[in-house]
Amino acid sequence: MINIYEELIVKRIASSLSLDLASLRWFPVVPLVPANDCDLFSLFDIVPNEGFIANVDDQSPLFSTTYGKLLEAQKQSFINDLAKKNYANESYWSECNKTKTPIFKPNSAEILSALSSGASFDFTFDSSDYSGPGKELFPSYPNFVIFQPFLNFNETAQNARFVFKLHFDKIVHIPVQLGGWFSQAAFVKAYKDKTAWNTGPNLVTWDELFGTNGILNFVTNGLLVASGMTLEIQSFGIYDLKTLLFLKTNLLTSVWPFYLSPENSRNEFDISEEGNITIKVTTSKSKNLLLAMQAAAVNVLVSPG
Length: 305
Prior knowledge:
Layout: H1 4-16, E1 24-26, E2 29-30, H2 37-44, H3 63-72, H4 78-88, E3 93-96, E4 99-102, E5 104-105, H5 108-116, E6 119-126, H6 151-158, E7 162-175, E8 177-178, H7 184-192, H8 206-210, E9 218-235, H9 241-249, E10 259-260, E11 266-271, E12 277-282, E13 288-297, H10 298-301
Parallel strand pairs: 2-10
Antiparallel strand pairs: 1-13, 3-4, 5-8, 6-7, 7-9, 9-12, 9-13, 11-12
């Protein structure tokens, strides 16, 4: 579950791009789009989990590796033999730090091109128009700013009204496609025909991949990229100049709901005569933010219609 405020934001972003909210996996700390294809393709290769948070664990299974194990577990057939040849074709792989990384689409240059054609996005809401935040999931309101020194700031904000404004110069959804190393025909056949599987030591099973707790129930099929972010939060809690100074001088400040590494954003803080603090976060137009990955359920992909 996410709280009502986060749900408002991500629902509006998803609807603006006609995306199914449940298919998106959001980053707790928003990274930049990888600047090189090796890092980008390695990210695409991670098998997504089910849930709200993007899976970027170094120990997560890789789709290409798991798919290779699937091919090895299939009985000999024309479809599978051809799939193995494509999988072994070096032209479908990149050499990345002495490791073979599967090629996907888009590459880094294609992402930049797609983003340049993206649409702008604007959204504003006032917390007084909605009920309380309910169940929280980190990172979450009222953690407007993170790190323990800001506990008092967040506690003051917890029961106070706030106004939230979000703008992106450009935002775009970009489909992700597997490269020539992947055979859809072999994959679909393996999923639908359990009799085509070999059994034995060191061979993966259908249940291990596609069962209820299988490791290959989702595959990455898109990403959500944005640039030129301006985020503003006006908290109507009562603060003092000491709090304002603390916010301004702490270089580790990161602001809800799109937490960013300090080097990737500029934060400004102002206080009104009434003690209300306004936080404004901006990012350079040259910094492309990776807001979310999109995941498709394998059982849907292999089903007709």
